[in-house]
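stage 2 :: seqdesign
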């Protein structure tokens, strides 16, 4: 009897699956008819753009900027899109990282098939890692979603908000909701993120209006990792404008540059490890190694770990000091957990990392997800002194930081080396794209902290840019240009 019941259930499930695919087709066709079918679309808006992964403290909103101009053009058939925007810092300035901080920042982000590039000026800058997400963004728009779902083996499921249509897009999964008015009200996907794992990207559409013969939402809000990244108040839409765009030769020819690691000895057993957009430091203790900063992601961490082991053979990496929780500075921390290191971070970050690191990582598994182990933290409240033998590091929580509420600074009292992240970025003057202008308030706070803590630095080791004498920071802080 129980067996027969089980078979009956199995048959019921199979039938439900078949009906669900049929339902999906009907729902999609009805929605496409109601919304209007287009080969290409262009929409213009104003709103807000947020700096993803740059919250002032873990769990706070991504810092917001004002989007004064935004136009996106998508050619669905060509799988190509162009996003043209201008954004600027709100007044007063919001706390956190990212953003342009000063003046209007113009961005032009493009994708065509497997190629992605930016056009900040007249020369294209290839964005090798960005094509997958930019392609996904095409299929997360209302009309794009319907097209991609129709070309896939989509399934349907009834929910309170409408019919939820799901399908696989390569290794990604896309879901969308079609409401009782046959309008796409929401699309979801999941992207891999070094900090958050398989991260939900949810986009909602509301206030549909007829523009140029097609229905299009007047409000679009996208959230990534639970907080808003883009909010658009759409003012105009062109149906079928086309998108005349060819991929620049330089973009087609571009290949991923090898990860570079360049060490600079700053003192006995102290190295500054540069070679990319973000720096680290390697410090030798009598029985172990401490690394300061694990930026970007696992690939960078593996390269820095290899360099640390080359510089200091036969000692384990016991500690990793994480300056702050911004994703570009914390994306490589998990690799050190997998390596067996204890993570030194400001106390507000430990619970955040534990929660974030518990998320599934099916899209981009890393060493820690493949060989799970418990993360060990050494949380710092205001000050912690790491010492063994004649090696001493002083770790301070930077009070009053506008950049990050849990920022740690490191001082080497014997060598008078001062490590800081993101408050001050000295760069080579000949660099085409300096690492970023830092607001005067960041440098002013740093100088205030140095005085308050009675530090006497001679050398500044920044986590972006180059090592400079402390006098350079004093000059930059005095002039307000850093
Ligand atoms: Zn930062």
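stage 2 :: out
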């Amino acid at each position: 009897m129980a067996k027969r019941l089980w078979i009956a259930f199995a048959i019921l499930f199979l039938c439900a699956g078949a009906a669900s695919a049929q339902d999906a087709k009907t729902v999609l066709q009805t929605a496409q008819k109601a919304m209007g079918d287009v080969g290409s679309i262009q929409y213009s808006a104003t709103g807000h753009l947020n700096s993803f992964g740059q919250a002032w403290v873990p769990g706070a909103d991504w810092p917001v900027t004002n989007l004064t101009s935004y136009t996106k053009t998508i050619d669905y058939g060509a799988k190509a899109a162009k996003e043209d925007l201008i954004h600027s810092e709100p007044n007063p300035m919001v706390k956190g990282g990212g953003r342009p901080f000063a003046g209007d920042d113009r961005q032009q982000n493009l994708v065509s098939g497997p190629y992605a590039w930016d056009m900040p000026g007249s020369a294209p800058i290839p964005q090798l890692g960005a094509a997958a997400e930019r392609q996904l963004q095409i299929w997360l728009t209302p009309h794009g979603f319907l097209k991609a779902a129709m070309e896939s083996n989509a399934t349907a499921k009834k929910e309170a908000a409408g019919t939820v249509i799901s399908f696989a897009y390569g290794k990604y999964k896309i879901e969308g909701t079609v409401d009782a008015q046959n309008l796409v009200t929401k699309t979801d996907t999941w992207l891999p993120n070094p900090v958050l794992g398989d991260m939900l990207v949810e986009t909602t559409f509301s206030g549909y209006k007829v523009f140029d013969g097609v229905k299009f939402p007047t409000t679009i809000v996208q959230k990534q990792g639970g907080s808003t990244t883009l909010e658009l108040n759409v003012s105009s839409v062109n149906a079928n404008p086309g998108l005349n765009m060819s991929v620049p030769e330089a973009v087609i020819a571009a290949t991923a540059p090898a990860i570079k690691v360049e060490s600079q000895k700053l003192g006995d057993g102290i190295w500054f490890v540069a070679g990319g957009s973000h720096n680290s430091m390697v410090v030798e203790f009598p029985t172990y190694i401490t690394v300061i900063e694990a930026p970007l992601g696992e690939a960078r961490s593996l390269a820095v770990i290899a360099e640390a082991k080359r510089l200091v053979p036969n000692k384990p990496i016991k500690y990793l000091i994480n300056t702050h929780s911004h994703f570009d500075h914390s994306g490589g921390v998990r690799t050190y957990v997998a390596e067996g290191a204890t993570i030194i971070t400001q106390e507000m970050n430990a619970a955040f990392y534990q929660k974030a690191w518990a998320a599934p990582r099916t899209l981009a598994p890393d060493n820690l997800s493949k060989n799970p182990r418990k993360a060990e933290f050494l949380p710092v409240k205001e000050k912690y002194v790491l010492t063994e033998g004649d090696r001493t590091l002083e770790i301070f929580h930077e009070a009053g930081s506008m950049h990050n509420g849990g920022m740690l600074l490191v001082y080497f009292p014997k060598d008078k080396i001062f490590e800081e992240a993101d408050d001050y970025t000295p760069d080579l003057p000949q660099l085409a794209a300096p690492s970023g202008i830092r607001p005067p308030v960041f440098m002013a706070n740093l100088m205030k902290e140095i005085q308050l803590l009675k530090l006497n630095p001679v050398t500044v080791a920044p986590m972006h840019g180059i090592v400079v004498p402390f006098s350079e920071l004093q000059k930059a802080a005095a002039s307000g240009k850093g």
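stage 3 :: structure notes
- Residues 195 and 353 are 8 Å apart (CA to CA).
- The longest strand covers residues 197-211.
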